[in-house]
Amino acid sequence: MTQPRDVRPPRHRMISRTALADTGLYLCVMAGLVWLLAEGTRQSGYNWQWYQIPKYLWRVTDQGFVWGPLLQGLGVTLRITALSMGLMLGIGLITALMRMSSSLAARGVARGYMELIRNSPLLIQIFFIYFVIAPILDISAFWAAIIALSLFEGAYASEILRAGISSIASGQWEAAQSLGMSPYAMYRHIILPQAVRRVLPPLTSQAVSLVKDSALVSTIAIMDLTQQGRMIDAETFLTFEIWFTVAAVYLAVTLALSGTVRLLERRYAGLRP
Questions:
Q1: Half-sphere exposure of 202 (CA within 13 A, CB side)
Q2: Is the pTM of this model over 0.90?
Q3: How many structural domains is the chain composed of?
Q4: Does the pLDDT at position 229 exceed 80?
């Protein structure tokens, strides 16, 4: 008796068709957005002046290449983001370890910090640190913004790191203890390297949120990308051109960050236990 033939299409063809369908859907959505933008512009009578945007990004003078105000603001944004990201990871790790500690006081402090930060708006926290804490500690608006962002994002990063640490198999802990490792050596050489590889995707999402949340520091007169865009808009009334450009710069930064982490994931994929 003959067996029925498998008439299903090959897997690679199914994947190709799915990718083609996704690409077609994406192009349709983008075409629809472009049409809506063009139609809205036509009906409002807005006069686009994109030719004026390059000088706010960079200029070439007799003295050479000069960064425009938008890219100068981007430099401030990147510095704030980089410093805040480092502090975020440190605060998140300390809080995660406190949450997992056997000390009731440590767990209580960590829990109180997380509840306070996660249940209040970031803007209010920035204002509180800038207007109340910064004068007492005699710190600048730049560092007040970094502290506020680090505390806010660190509360969320702590849960991500705690989940990664908790996911490590008990055999790994027992093996480290059987070798007589100290807690510091155990976390440094055994637990954290595995945990970090597991939580790279959610940590990347948190880093992207940090980049976007950094726009709020413009409210305390820091000349970041958003503040520079606001000032140029007030001077030129190029509202759509300026804010579309600012949005595109933020998008480029977040896409570059996500792409870098994806490369790291592929590099360390073979090391995942």
A1: 16
A2: no
A3: 1
A4: yes
